[in-house]
Write a structure and sequence with these properties.
This protein has 210 residues and is mostly helical. The protein has two domains: 50 residues, Orthogonal Bundle (Arc Repressor Mutant, subunit A); 141 residues, Orthogonal Bundle (Tetracycline Repressor, domain 2), CATH 1.10.357.10. 76% of the residues lie in helices and 0% in strands. The protein contains ten helices and no strands. The chain is elongated and about 60 Å long.
Length: 210
Amino acid sequence: MPRRRDQAARRQELLAAAVAVINERGPAGVRMKDVARQADLATGSVYYYYDDVDELLHQVHLLASERYLADRRTATAALDDPRARLAVMVDLGLPRPADEPLSLALYQVAVAKARDPRHAAFMTELCGSQRELYEEILTEGEQAGVFDLTASARTIAESLIALEDGFGLGICCGKDGFTYELCRDQLLAAAAGWTRCADLADLADRAGLA
């Protein structure tokens, strides 16, 4: 058991090093020896855990899936009120300062690997799963009478994801005025408008998400 924990920790170290190298050199400039140097390990140690650079880039994608899908599923599943669930979805859909390195790396890998069938399929699945989770919450809220949707649940879900991507890119690229707090407020306002639920921001604040 200790060995498995050690291996899991080493994999996390290598992925953190890969994220740092991606953000320094871009995905096309990533080399296994650079990841090893960033992690202060021998290059052979990187190959022990990952076959090649493409596998490392894929694993960075999987890290992003944990952050922007699995974590959101877990957080929203713990709540009963669809309004609180939607507020949590919005809050966790944007990169906080600690998330920025991973999120910036994800944006770069997504563009660099856009024509790679494996990576394209992963991004399609990730976005589709996020949309389904939004749709589930929106439909639940409409059925409960707390949302009055201005469009279909699918359309609103896709619109929220599109805003997340735009705001998230602005945050990670340091675009002037694109702070997490401001983008969160604007995304909550959009969700409130499309659901005709004016108290979304208040629910988020009471849940300690601000």
